[in-house]
Amino acid sequence: MLFVAKAIFTSLLIISVSHAQGMLENYCQQSSDYVKEYNRAHNSGEYFPQPKINSKEQAYLIQACIVSSKAQKIVGFKAGLINESSQEKFHIDEPVLGVFTKGNLKDSNIDIYESNKVSLIEVELAFRLKQKIDDLADLEKDIIELVDAVAPAIEIPLFHFENTSSLISNDIIAANVGANIFILGDFVLVEDVDIDSIEVSLIKNDEVIGRSLDADSINRWESLRWLIKKSYLEGYNLEEGTIYLTGSQINPVVMKRAMYQASYSQMKDITLIVK
Fold first, then answer.
1. Which of 129, 164, 205, 206 has its CA 20 to 30 Å from the CA of residue 171?
2. DSSP 3-state assignment of 100?
3. Where are the domains of the chain?
4. Helix and strand tally (H, E) in the chain?
5. What is the DSSP letter of 240?
């Protein structure tokens, strides 16, 4: 009986995902003006558009249209609003998913310049998917079986909204959760580190300006599990090597001209120079 119930649920899920994929092309045609406006704003420094979005589902459709418009390989995903306090602030009961394409991944020696756009620096853990996720049954495995390596990462998200007082979670989702730039350090095998005890700090010009959030604020494994499952349910192909950034390990800081060092207790540091 349990096997039959699981088979029925999986079939319904496949139908649901296929239906969503079928809707996407038509929806992207309808929302092409918004997508063009968003892409122009993201590239030029203008404020992001904030159209009226009626549901979380609609917000994720808009996000998928933005991702599709880039015509680039999807290399990973990110989680935002990962703790209860941020979720309460934006009246949502789960984190939010963002999508990284190839153009978002940069080398650590990239030239980054201080900008009039409000950019943040977040210190992250990046997990690497061990193998392709083909069906829902794969997601029932122990989470540590789904990934093979973890790396230090710096993310520079971009949230450039003019009217932040009226900002809601749907706006954040539609704007692809600020997906902008992320930088990876060296990967290490997950069995060679204790994920739960990794200490993280951010140093700016030799001064520590951020330290690891406590375990009550961020559960690394639970965030990863949610992120993998959500990316699957949104209909994305999850290939071996897909990267997952599970949320900032410190309180995000505004990026200024300086030398930043993301320091990790069990992995190599990453240095970023903002000119």
1. 129
2. strand
3. 2-274
4. 6, 13
5. T
- Sort 30 into a burial class: Cβ within 10 Å, 0-12 / 13-18 / 19+: exposed
Neighbour tally for 46: CB within 10 Å: 14
Helix axes 2-30, 32-44, angle to 10 degrees: 80
Tokens coding 77 = 């995903």
Class of domain 2-274 (CATH, top level): alpha beta
Task: Tell me the C-alpha distance between 273 and 275, whole Å.
Answer: 6
pLDDT of 32 > 50? The answer is yes
Q: In this structure, which long-range contacts are made by residues 109-112, counting pairs with CB atoms below 8 Å and at least 24 apart in sequence?
A: 110/181, 110/183, 111/275, 112/156, 112/181, 112/255, 112/272, 112/273, 112/274, 112/275
Q: What is the pTM of this model?
A: 0.88
pLDDT of residue 36: 92
Residue 124's beta-bridge partner residues? 153
Residue 117 is encoded by which pair of tokens?
A: 């756009």
